[in-house]
Amino acid sequence: MSETLIDTETKLDKVEKADELSGRGRPAAGQDPVKRDQIMEGARRVFMDKGFDAASMNDVTREAGVSKGTIYVYFDNKEELFEALVEEERCKIFQNLYEVLDREDNLRDVLEDFGLALSYKITSDKVVMAQRTVIGVAERIPELGLRFYEKGPKQGHAKVEAFLKRAIAKGLLEIADVDLAAYQLSELCMAGLLRQRLYGYRRQSPADHEIRYVVRAGVDVFLKAYGTEAFAAQDRIRPVA
User: Fold this and answer.
1) Eight-class DSSP state of 96
2) What is the DSSP string of 137-166?
3) Topology of domain 5-75, per CATH?
4) Chain CA centroid to CA 221, Å
5) Residues 137-169: tens digit of each pLDDT
6) Whole-angstrom Cα distance, residue 173 to residue 222?
7) How far apart (Å, rounded) are the C-alpha atoms in residues 184 and 159?
8) pLDDT by residue (tens digit) across 200-217?
9) Which of 2, 42, 97, 158 is deepest in the core (most CB within 10 A)?
């Protein structure tokens, strides 16, 4: 006869209690990073497979290999677990993405390298899945979508704005609306690619040559719109790799 969920949870509880008695369960309740990561990884697989609405805490306990009692020590409910997972994914998505904007290289080179980093990251399988997931629950949990945007894309947008303002101060760009131009730059570097990925029209990540073609064309349009004569002079003497 197959083992019931209650039997499984009872065994898991006994194992975890035995760990505590033997000294292996030293971290305080809810403070063990290994156990938390175990739960998060199980939740990640469940949410990706079933989606937010269909997934349950029981599904996560089975997938993560922990008891129901243990999972509720770390997370009060499915919503809290999902929010923690989204926050973790957000950090991974935007970590180091904007570092290239700190460089003092040729303007075109920096913009192209930023566009490549952005497009590779945002159109990748894992990030597309994360974006779909956040969009899918934004109506049900609007504050989740708000926090994701404010701590991720919005902060990144501010970094792009700061970079453009520095280029303006150097006389390389002339932009009346820097806020709009920062959005335009990002959109130009992913023109057509992101929307096709989000809707599932394009099942695979774009090929390297496609991304490079789109980014170079996008940056060229951007610089033709906002580049100054000083930039054009710099661009003419730019060394070609």
Assistant:
1) T
2) HTTTSHHHHHHHHHHTHHHHHHHHHHHHHH
3) Arc Repressor Mutant, subunit A (1.10.10)
4) 27
5) 888 888 888 888 888 889 999 999 999 999 999
6) 10
7) 14
8) 999 899 999 999 999 999
9) 42
